[in-house]
Amino acid sequence: MGILGIEILEEIERLDPSVRSALIKVLKKIDNYLEKTVKSEDFQRLTSIVSALAEEVKIIAEQQRKTEETLNALAEEVRALAEEVKKLAEEQRKLAERQTKTEETVKALAEEVKKLAEEVKELAERQTKTEETVKALTEEVKKLAEEQRKLAERQTKIEETVRALAEEVKKLAERQTKIEETVRALAEEVKKLAERQTKTEEELRKLIKEHEKTRKDLGGLTQSFGYFLENESYKHLPSLLERDYHLQITEPLDRKFIRYPHNRYDEVNIYGKGKIDGKELIILGEVKSQLSKRHVDEFLKKVSRIKKFYNWETFLVLVTHMAVNPQVEDYVKDLGIALYKSSQFR
Predict the structure, then answer these.
(1) pTM above the 0.70 mark?
(2) Domain 246-344 is of which CATH architecture?
């Protein structure tokens, strides 16, 4: 490749093997063609063009080297470029074939030298277009390098984002671990609490049983005391009523069920008959260990039910064991009901 020179060959050697091979073939054909067709007076201009082309090829080779180091993804673009070079080689081959035919025509038709010169001029124009194409290709490579730089920047940002995300995931995992530990500790506390609750429930069941037993025992004692207080009333009330109200007992005092229609009834603690100044009276009374206003009202309701069915003249009496609230005592007196305390049973 005498015309193209050693410098461009050195730069071509730095290119990718597939690109280098195709480009060498093209340049060889161009070199052969130029050796046969270029006039001596054009050699200097062509040499200048070739030098410029060599410089461009040098720049392209440097950019190619940097591109290969930073982005393997450009391999596809380089292969596409190789394909374009192959196409260019094919076009050059076709051009060489046409040139061969032209040379044969020149040999056969020496008189058409002017036409050959015109064709050389056209070739020079095509060479100019080729230079423009190489320049455009150089510009595209620059753009490609810029895109690669931007891609590298985006890749760096992505890597930083991924690292930050990994750090957040790590922190989240640590928090999750702490939460799991807290949940396990809480579960253990809940388990202990459940065990204590079970024990508490067991103790509560025992207490309930004991309470029920106590209530039964207390109920039995209360009932026994109530019967005792009623019996004491039957013994001591006759003398007290005669002393305080001139009421003479004509039928002994006792507890009694007062019957109503439809098998209904009321129980009264004190029932008996007596006279005041010859007037017949039915004695109705209630015995409570600790008398309250509620007890008084319930007794009055019971008396009211009895009088709906029995047209009796009644004498009402209440007996209590413990001290009576002064307000309750006044309430009983205002109603005209006789009131006695067990302490009066002497």
Answers:
(1) no
(2) 3-Layer(aba) Sandwich (3.40)
